[in-house]
């Protein structure tokens, strides 16, 4: 076979070498019949390729053929690397390919829904263009998502999904090292796993069923099953009615569950170790991706240090800043943002754990505090003032669990096998669930969770 070179690896040291690449023809620019510039893209990288009419090497017909290529057609380019004084096309690689051979492998239709270059511009570029009287095409989010197959090709999207992949890789590495077992729980289940109305109902061979709102019940049953420490990376379904920047109807849940020896702090310890490692990993291994994202959507890197506060301390900080919370109530989006800002200013971190929430605002399976049952052994984790994780110690006593489920209005019959799992000897345990798209969105300072979902599902979107 022939040797193929990655566009991202093309560099000045290769000057004079003949290379062969395959990519998409992102732009085709011709100012005369004798010369044509192609920008060929592969992943996050682009390279400028030039064809100049040259006796016995490049015929006028070949230049004509190159000029007639449609944008996004897949091309094979063979040519010699050179280092031009100036790149006219703004390609990422600082070299040029003097084309010798050019093949069109697959021709794209001429009327694309939008150009990748148009979908890759930053707000600054729009502003600059406006000032100079130039008209740039804006590509709206719905147009992009309706045509996600092509939208995913922008360098920024290529970068976002590589960051997402690296984040999960690091999560797996750290948890496996800490002796967690990766599990795969069912997604079609008999009763709702989190309670509430946010559940997709379906029929399972004539019986009522739903799509799992989380692996909650089954990851706990895996702990009853003797695995000690488990985790899962898998789809989570929420029939959310909220059409917001941070809610999806299907997202990737990162779920962890573990035996607790003495205190639910042990779960918070894992949260901190895990997320410090993930953030370090992304900063150290995805610097190119983060630069690409930042170019289109500028953001400040997160500051992250382990920091824990109780709910009461958080509420007190808000009070002192003039923000009142309903007594023993949930923090609304605005209060969360405000608290994030206060903690960031005071403790120099955009990441923190808020512990010991009032019991009444937590799910039925949450363990009340031993010394004050108004509160619970629970926590939420915030990044840039938005929730990325919720977790808790769980009730492992079947009678107490039944009582709490009833108090929370859950039909106990639908979860009887779950409750029964605790009748045969169940260790104290706890865990947490994170939303992968939320983590990526906030780590990269993005303004919409849909940017972090390959094919987002929200209340209005079921395709593509
Ligand atoms: O807070 P949630 O609903 O908690 C649970 O599912 C528990 N079973 C977790 C546990 O182990 N105790 O969801 C956990 C995380 C949230 O913190 C958030 O990051 C994300 O999942 N999440 C969503 N992400 C996108 N779209 C939605 N609609 C989300 N709902 C929750």
Automatic annotation (TrEMBL):
Residues 171-464 form the Aminoacyl-transfer RNA synthetases class-II family profile domain. Keywords: Aminoacyl-tRNA synthetase, ATP-binding, Cytoplasm, Ligase, Nucleotide-binding, Protein biosynthesis. The lineage of its organism: Eukaryota, Viridiplantae, Streptophyta, Embryophyta, Tracheophyta. It is an enzyme of class 6 (ligase). GO terms for biological process: aspartyl-tRNA aminoacylation. Belongs to the class-II aminoacyl-tRNA synthetase family. Type 2 subfamily. Coiled coil: none annotated. Its EC number is 6.1.1.12. One of its GO terms (cellular component) is aminoacyl-tRNA synthetase multienzyme complex. This is aspartate--tRNA ligase. The chain holds residues 331 to 794 of 794 of the full protein. Its main location: cytoplasm. It is found in: Cytoplasm. It comes from the Eukaryota.
């Amino acid at each position: 076979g022939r040797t193929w070179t990655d566009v991202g690896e093309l560099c000045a040291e290769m000057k004079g070498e003949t290379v062969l690449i395959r990519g998409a023809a992102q732009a085709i620019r011709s100012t005369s019949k004798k010369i044509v510039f192609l920008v060929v893209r592969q992943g996050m990288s682009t390279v400028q390729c030039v064809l100049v009419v040259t006796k016995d090497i490049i015929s006028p017909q070949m230049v004509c053929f190159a000029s007639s290529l449609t944008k996004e057609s897949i091309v094979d380019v063979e040519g010699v690397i050179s280092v031009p004084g100036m790149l006219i096309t703004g390609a990422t690689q600082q070299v040029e390919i003097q084309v010798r051979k050019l093949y069109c492998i697959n021709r794209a239709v001429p009327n694309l829904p939008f150009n990748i270059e148009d979908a890759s511009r930053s707000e600054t570029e729009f502003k600059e263009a406006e000032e100079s009287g130039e008209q740039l095409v804006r590509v709206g989010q719905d147009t992009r998502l309706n045509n996600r197959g092509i939208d995913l090709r922008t360098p920024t999207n290529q970068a976002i999904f590589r960051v997402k992949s690296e984040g999960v890789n690091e999560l797996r590495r750290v948890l496996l090292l800490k002796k967690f077992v990766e599990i795969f729980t069912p997604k079609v289940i008999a009763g709702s796993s989190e309670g509430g109305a946010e559940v997709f109902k379906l029929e399972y061979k004539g019986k009522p069923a739903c799509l799992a709102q989380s692996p909650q019940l089954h990851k706990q049953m895996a702990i009853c099953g003797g695995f000690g420490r488990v985790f899962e990376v898998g789809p989570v379904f929420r029939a959310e009615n909220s059409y917001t920047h941070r809610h999806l109807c299907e997202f990737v849940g990162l779920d962890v569950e573990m035996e607790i020896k003495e205190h639910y702090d042990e779960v918070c310890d894992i949260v901190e170790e895990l997320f410090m490692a993930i953030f370090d990993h992304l900063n150290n291994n995805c610097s190119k991706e983060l630069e690409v994202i930042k170019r289109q959507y500028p953001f400040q890197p997160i500051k992250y240090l382990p920091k824990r506060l109780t709910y009461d301390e958080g509420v007190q900080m808000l009070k002192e800043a003039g923000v009142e919370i309903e007594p023993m109530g949930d923090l609304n989006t605005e209060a969360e943002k405000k608290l994030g800002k206060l903690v960031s200013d005071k403790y120099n971190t955009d990441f923190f754990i808020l512990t010991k929430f009032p019991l009444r605002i937590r799910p039925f399976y949450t363990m009340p505090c031993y010394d004050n049952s108004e509160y619970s052994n629970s926590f939420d984790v915030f990044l840039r003032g938005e929730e990325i994780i919720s977790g808790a110690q769980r009730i492992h006593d079947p009678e107490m669990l039944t009582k709490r489920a009833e108090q929370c209005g859950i039909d106990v019959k639908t979860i009887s096998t779950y409750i029964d799992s605790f009748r045969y000897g169940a260790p104290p345990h706890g865990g947490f669930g994170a939303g992968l798209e939320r983590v990526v969105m906030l780590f990269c300072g993005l303004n919409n969770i849909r940017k972090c979902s390959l094919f987002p599902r929200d209340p209005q979107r079921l395709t593509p």
